[in-house]
Give the backbone structure.
Amino acid sequence: MNRRMESNLMRLLHGELPPEEARDLRARIERDPALREEYRRLRATWEGLSLPPSAPVPPGFAQRIAARTRTEQAGLSWSLAPGWVRATAAAALVIGAAVGIGVGEIWPLGETKPAAVTQEADPQTVETAEAIDGSLAEGYWTAMDELDGSETEEALP
Amino acid sequence: MGADLPTDPGWDALARTARGDTGAFTGLVEAHQERLLRLCERLLGDPEEARDAAQEVFLKAFRKAGEVRPLGQVYTWLYRIAMNLCLNKLRRRKLVRFLRFETDPEEPDAPAFDPPDAAPDPASALESRRRWQATRKAIAKLPDNQRAVLILARFEGLSYRQIAEVLGITEGAVESRLFRAMRRIEAIEGREDAQEKGAPRVSRTEGKR
């Protein structure tokens, strides 16, 4: 049996042949035992295929999808918002982040604020600090002078 | 097998969906959920997976509502999305099995859904179940492209033209895949019969072509 005849048998089975062609082919099947056998077998296979009824639609199926689409719709409306709205929101986000970083730089997490910032300085403490500062500075310059003098002497021939 | 009408009200529902009317989309889901779930179940052979797949199909349709061109029937467009999704799932399933070295891929003996017996007597009910099982087993052994065509033709009642539209192939390809699927099923059933009778494994079609 040629390919064309095979496809015509299949078309006949599936109801795809125009009525006139279907009538001609049926007449030919009646006349030709080999063709008749081929068609009988094909038809038995086709009609033998059977599947159970499918499971019923689960309750609330459409409503669950509706809920998902509403969520998506909310996301979609944001992406479809005018450019200036999205730009303003983005700018606000950047400024907020920058301010946050700045505050973090000034007062890092886990560190206490300096006492001088939060409290009024005790006059006695200030005096002591100044005295220490003064003596340290004096000591530093004395040491530097001594160092300069020795170096100069050593360097001279 | 309805003729392709350009005035399918589903297109209008999709247009309204694209304009933000989610209620219109819910109506579309209600109109097509049964056939979509059935198709996914027949392709995947598992009601749980079919439910997830059908939900995914509708969500994809929702996202594409603004892009789709209203041609033919809405359900053929939905079928196309379902087909692509289910065939991808089947491919992934095969890949996973291959990576796990599993041998019997389709588990055709495990009934996907156990429906109540509609047949009047126990003998008929038993016979129906035997046929369902044999059909599932045979379909599971078909290559994906033949399985898709056979299910659309035999169980969804689509014409060659509609199947071609759903699968994005020519009518000639539909015809050829369907015929090959039939031959293969004959061969599978022939082997099963021979095994049941204890005869050597010769198919009914072997030696004929």
Chain B touches chain A through 51 residues (CB under 8 Å).
